[in-house]
Amino acid sequence: MRLRSTILAVLLLFFPALAGAQQGKKNDGMQGMPGRDNGQMQGTQMGGDGLITMHPETFLQEIARHGTSGTSAEPNSTPVPMLMAMRGAWMLMFHANAFVMDEQQSSPRGGNKFFSTNWFMGMAQRPLGPGVFTARAMLSLEPATVTERRYPLLFQQGETVFGKPIGDGQHPHDLFMEIAALYDLKLGSKGLLSFYAAPVGDPALGPVAYPHRASASEDPLAALGHHQEDSTHIADDVVTVGLTHLIARIEASGFHGREPDESRWNIDQGRIDSWSTRLTLQPGKSWSGQYSYGRIKSPEALFPNEDQERMTSSIQYNHPLHEGNWISTALWGRTRSLQDNSIFNGYALESTVRFRTRNYAWTRIENVDRSNELILSENQLPTNFREHLIGSVQAYTFGYDHDIDLIGHVASALGVQVTAYGVGDRLKPIYGARPVGVAVFLRIRPFSGDER
Fold first, then answer.
1. pTM for this one?
2. Of 46, 189, 202, 243, which is least packed with CB atoms within 10 Å of its CB?
């Protein structure tokens, strides 16, 4: 509790400065944009022996940039759209992504809904001694913008709503997605020792979480494989230590394993009872890969006596384009029950291309295992219910949107996304042979310069 209170106090002190930076942007706040000369801003390095830069050339600089969730990494060349300002020794940043959408689904088990998925991240960073100190907070308004505690998502399962399992729906994120303090200590010219402490945060388990992956940046909906791949991106009482040398990084985390409860407005708590480790390799500016392993104590409220083993592996490739960018992710995640040895796999391929500056096209193709809990929909589980595999589902998503900038430094886009599903014989009588989901949306996020 003392660690939690200290980190909260630090963040509350520094993040009001972000609002002040926005008020002062006419003088120095928003001048630091790609292609503009503003001293110690995006295109140059500052402090920490050159660790702080928004255009990293090395893996060490990519880690210290902290533009992703937790302590995960993407290829060095991946653009991170955000607003920035300088206040003395501090670099202040604001990053966000929000969708307002109407979703329609054709299946008998589908639903229609108007809602918003969103997140907002503020970060303050400065040189401190031989390294870099970073304070970061990530919030989501989904507890208010996703009514009835879930939105329609065919074949999705995981967590609860009003004490019952969620079926064909996705729960909202918590208001507090992350509150963290980080310190990166330079070890000579080739090494970095990193520390991460978060009352709410993301342990070293899995790839960059789907809301923050560049390859999924235009997709407004959750991945079906979320609970096999990256569901720990909101965990309680997280501590992580990482050691980097040249292109390789090894991390270890301790955290509380229970997933967030249905009260999405508060900060949950619990003792550190789970652990994970992750190996990340960055062989070049355009490549990033990771393998992670973890033991999670009692993650699901409906199965409090079940612990899980999780393994994930992913590869990302980013390719800068003239007037755009193209980034792709191949991802595998697996959970295994340590009680009955049941195994569930999720596979995903994501790719998003920005072309001619204002246009985006993307796809997400998934193959995920589903359990018999899905058949029960959102009904109370029978006494002595045992979860087991009933088959796999395929999801084929394609989308397009186009920026129509209405406000300065805010990229507003109108878009549409279509998802078709491949359904096994056992599920066809319930879902129909060819279920389809369509989402029409407005997307908004801050950006500076050419990085959208």
1. 0.88
2. 189
